[in-house]
Amino acid sequence: MSALESGPATLAGLVAATGLARPTAHRLAVALEHHRMVARDMQGRFILGPRLAELAAAAGEDRLLATAGPVLTHLRDITGESAQLYRRQGDMRICVAAAERLSGLRDTVPVGSTLTMKAGSSAQILMAWEEPERLHRGLQGARFTATALSGVRRRGWAQSIGEREPGVASVSAPVRGPSNRVVAAVSVSGPIERLTRHPGRMHAQAVIDSAARLSEALRRTG
């Protein structure tokens, strides 16, 4: 597998790189292929398989959740609003961690809640950096536009005012994995009466800072 780290290799290439006998190299490569640790490209050469990416994503999610608690609690404490962490799951987004405002009127999103990708600031974040084809599909029926997502990419945060739920405003920023890919969205949410119709002015920097802390934790252990 280390021999495949630099790119595709033929069986002869694997033999040369590992010093293994040809039958042994072939047997190991085929066994790893069976477990999806190794795959073949269009030319039949051996390459690293999809299972490695799946395991890396699972490990990354564990690291993200281990770090999220204190970061979301701090974000809640400095903004006075409920804080959440969302990940995309197919055509929906799921709340994987949260720190609720301790008292008074608040927006409550329980951990495990599945919400639409068609509305809300965290949906905007999780959509904004998608590949063009998936982005185009995701915008069909959405409460936000391609122009709005262009603005999100430019400034690095998103806001919504009554988009997901009447009377609720939110601000979100992207969490990036070691490859700089957006893997999650950090949000604060609460009533428009407190967050106003320009919630980004109040809380964008705090949300960006929290997202940066989570991104840094993923890079450190990535």
From TrEMBL:
Pfam families: HTH_IclR (PF09339), IclR_C (PF01614)
Top-level lineage group: Bacteria
Coiled coil: none
UniProt keyword list: DNA-binding, Transcription, Transcription regulation
InterPro entries, per database record: GAF-like_dom_sf (IPR029016), HTH_MetabolicPath_Reg (IPR050707), Tscrpt_reg_IclR_C (IPR014757), Tscrpt_reg_IclR_N (IPR005471), WH-like_DNA-bd_sf (IPR036388), WH_DNA-bd_sf (IPR036390)
Domain IclR-ED, residue spans: 51-220
Record bears the keyword Transcription regulation: yes
Matching SUPFAM superfamilies: GAF domain-like (SSF55781), Winged helix' DNA-binding domain (SSF46785)
Name under which the protein is recorded: IclR family transcriptional regulator
